[in-house]
# Entry
Amino acid sequence: MTTADTWKINFHTHCTYCDGKSTLEENVISAISKGMQILGFSSHASFPLEYSCSIKLNQFQNYCSEVLALKEKYKNQIDIRLGFEADWAERFCKPDFEVYKKINPDFLIGSVHFIDNGGSLLDDLIAIDYSPERRDEDIKKYFKGNAREYVCSYFETQRQMLKNSSFSIIGHPDLVRKFNEKSPFFNEDESWYKEQLKETAKAIKKAGVISEINTGAISRKWLTSPYPSLYFLELLHDQGVPVMLSSDSHFKDALDCSFDIALNMAKKAGYKELCYPDNGTIKSFDINQF
# Structure
């Protein structure tokens, strides 16, 4: 366990290289002003392909070079890490250190944003978090109106990612509920849904990755609580899955958005420590140091 007095960190940070609104350096300056010790950049990536929200292939080198330059420039003020939020779409891309070995990132966040519908392009796939209207259209078109099958397909896709990839952190592990608070389409208390969470918690444990407690949907005004839900987080705790707080920030002022809510939920679920990836290992610190 580390012994620093505080460990205010964020590894899930987007910038203008993908769909973020702030530049890399604007995020760094904001993180320093907020007293962060570590800032990890994690632009959307679907290497060796690209889609509308991801880094363009011809920008990968620029992104990496700029992150490393900022790491050197601000080395006496903050520890900057190079990473990606790498998408899983089985026929197209996966979050795997072997895939990204030429880039040699410090960490990878493995995320499922799509369900495969057999389309020929990555942008053709079913987007989980686009909008409630798009969600309802996709459920009607691809699942004959069966919301349960849609949700189960999302979690099965996630379990396939966990089984067949190598990454550091699983991103927003119940993203499928993003719109369920304002635009409900299934009951999170039903037994079939809880069973999906139980199976996924086991898969996360087996994969040996960190689960983030992600406040991104709070900053976007879709949810009033983080991903994962408290029930899911309790399951992760029971499985012994390490966790970390992440803002999934898309603009510089949101780097620590609602971390107080996420921290309290982690404590309520029973967590005593928070973690972060470091040189292929997982480091932990007392939750009260955050």
The two ends are 13 Å apart (CA to CA). The longest helix spans residues 147-164.
